[in-house]
Design brief:
heterodimer, A: Rossmann fold, N-(1-d-carboxylethyl)-l-norvaline Dehydrogenase, domain 2, 2 domains, 6-stranded mixed beta sheet, B: alpha/beta, Rossmann fold, 8-stranded mixed beta sheet, about 15% strand
Chain lengths: ~230, ~290
């Protein structure tokens, strides 16, 4: 299937070269819009009904932000997607493809085909905050951080248990410290604001990591400013 | 180095049979106790099938298997457990049932015999309180299927002596298992994290957010898990998930531990998972894992 790529702004899902970008055509039945200036991009696209599917890259926002919502009957050839990645880790091969209640199956199938043709794995889900993976794993990560504080077990024993007991490739504490606790804070804070669900409320360790990251960034900015001012004198 | 020579396993269900395999395979004389001869016979048949596969897969020789099976005895006479240095109970997850069993074992076993509980959700301290020897009771939670999984969550109760915990820890390692220490906390580590996660997954299906296959694909691709959560729930069984989750909820009252209504509807429909041929997916075939 031929598809077009339109990029407006920075893409979190495809920041670098990828077969999805390399195999795109100038025209096609599907348009995949990348970037973080989606409202502007959709204006540029104009009439959407000439495409079988218009697939927009999502951040924390719901697809309804771009489509509008009414009576739970919304749905058209406009779909959303995000390529899943954990913090500082490279993006995975997972595409979470977002549909609405009345999205035609043909549009879902066309979008799926485009991503799968580039070697990606597609999981279709409703237009909900956190989509599938973040919605499921973030409360678990928060609980692990909380229980570490409460002394349930050592970090090593918690990670070993979840790796050996469930076959997980990595335990939650090791995973979060590697991929960035401050990133976990960003994701969970957004989910907590969107849902009000206390399971998403960032755990203390994530809050501390975020505060520390902010303080370090501010200190670096201050030092750079000082250096500039000194050299100007 | 473990001073334990003879191991008792009380209960010959899936977990009990698996634990007995682990102990016997590690060279311990192992006595399996159950009130029902039929349950012991079933466990023996499954165990023989498991070891036959071990020979087929060249993990053990027939001579080794014969020795292991000769060291593995079954009894409906609780008095026979008097020979054991440690008795691991793997009976129904009910405090009253466990107290009744431990009281009977306490009456027949010598004072130095250790009691271990394979509970996945109940408090070791509460179980120990009905044992008559709470300083010699430890938590030893094996993972399913016990005969294949190396992990054992070990918990001291509030009154467990350091000597008893240390002896059980050494015995666990002597069986070739990997012990981890956790507080006596509902669900210990594994179920404390797994049950609410699985409940959230089931709620996601219930709310129509995504199809089971999409959820499993997302978790496997996004996080590198070998098995999707709904595949795992089907393997464990929805009835088992219900039991563990209800026990965990009773001990924590955390909303995420409360079982979604869909679980009870699926159980009512006979959709228990792999064991009935249908859960979140459809299946054919059922046998003891591994060999």
């Amino acid at each position: 299937m031929n598809y077009r790529i339109l990029t407006v702004g920075d893409s979190a899902s495809f920041p670098n070269s990828h077969p999805l970008l390399d195999n795109a055509s100038r025209t096609g039945d599907v348009i995949v819009i990348l970037g973080n200036r989606m409202t502007e991009a959709l204006e540029r696209v104009g009439k959407r009904d000439r495409y079988q599917a218009v697939v927009v890259e999502l951040g924390d926002e719901c697809l309804g932000f771009y489509s509008g919502e009414s009576r739970g009957e919304e749905g058209s050839n406009l779909l959303g997607f995000a390529r899943f990645g954990l913090g500082a880790d490279p993006a995975t091969q997972l595409i979470e493809l977002v549909r609405q209640p009345a999205t035609p199956q043909a549009a879902i199938d066309a979008a799926r085909q485009v991503f799968e043709s580039a070697g990606l794995q597609v999981a279709v889900c409703k237009d909900v905050p956190g989509r599938i993976v973040n919605r499921l794993v973030r409360p678990y990560y928060n609980a692990a951080l909380r229980r570490l504080d409460e002394g349930l077990a050592t970090a090593a024993d918690m990670d070993t248990t979840l790796k050996l007991g469930l076959g997980y490739p990595e335990g939650p504490i090791g995973l979060l410290e590697r991929s960035g606790l401050e990133h976990h804070y960003d994701v969970t804070q957004a989910l907590y604001e969107a849902t009000g669900d206390s399971g998403f409320f960032p755990a203390r360790r994530a809050q501390v990591a975020k505060q520390r990251a902010r303080a370090v960034a501010e200190a670096q900015a201050w030092a750079e400013r000082e250096q500039r001012e000194t050299s100007d004198e | 180095m473990s001073a334990i020579k003879t191991v008792g396993v009380a209960g010959s269900g899936t977990m009990g049979a698996g634990i007995a395999i682990v102990a016997a395979r590690a060279g311990f004389r192992t006595l399996v106790y159950d009130v029902a001869q039929g349950a012991l016979d079933r466990a023996r048949k499954q165990t023989e099938g498991f070891f036959a596969k071990s020979v087929e897969r060249k993990k053990l020789t027939q001579v080794e298997v014969d020795e292991i099976l000769a060291s593995l005895e079954a009894t409906t006479d609780i008095a026979a457990m008097a020979q054991c240095d440690i008795v691991i109970e793997a009976v129904f997850e009910n405090l009253k049932v466990k107290h009744e069993l431990l009281a009977k074992l306490n009456a027949v076993c010598p004072p130095q015999t250790l009691f271990a509980s394979n509970t996945s959700t109940l408090s070791i301290t509460e179980i120990a309180a009905g044992s008559g020897r709470d300083e010699r009771v430890v938590g030893m939670h094996f993972c399913l299927p016990a005969q294949l999984m190396k992990l054992v969550e070990m918990s001291p109760g509030l009154r467990t002596s350091e000597e008893a915990f240390s002896a059980a820890w050494d015995f666990c390692k002597a069986m070739g298992q990997i012990p981890v220490k956790t507080k006596d906390n509902p669900g210990f580590i594994l179920n404390y994290f797994l049950i609410p996660f699985n409940n959230d997954v089931i709620r996601m299906v219930e709310a129509g957010i995504a199809e089971p296959a999409d959820i499993d694909r997302a978790i496997k691709t996004g996080l590198g898990y070998a098995m999707g959560p709904l595949e795992l729930i089907d393997l464990v069984g929805l009835d088992t998930h219900l039991l563990v989750a209800e026990a965990l909820y009773a001990g924590t009252h955390e909303p995420r531990n409360q079982v979604p209504a869909l679980v009870k509807r699926m159980i009512a429909a006979g959709h228990l998972g792999r064991k009935t041929g249908q859960g979140f997916y459809k299946y054919s075939g059922n046998a003891m894992f591994g060999g």
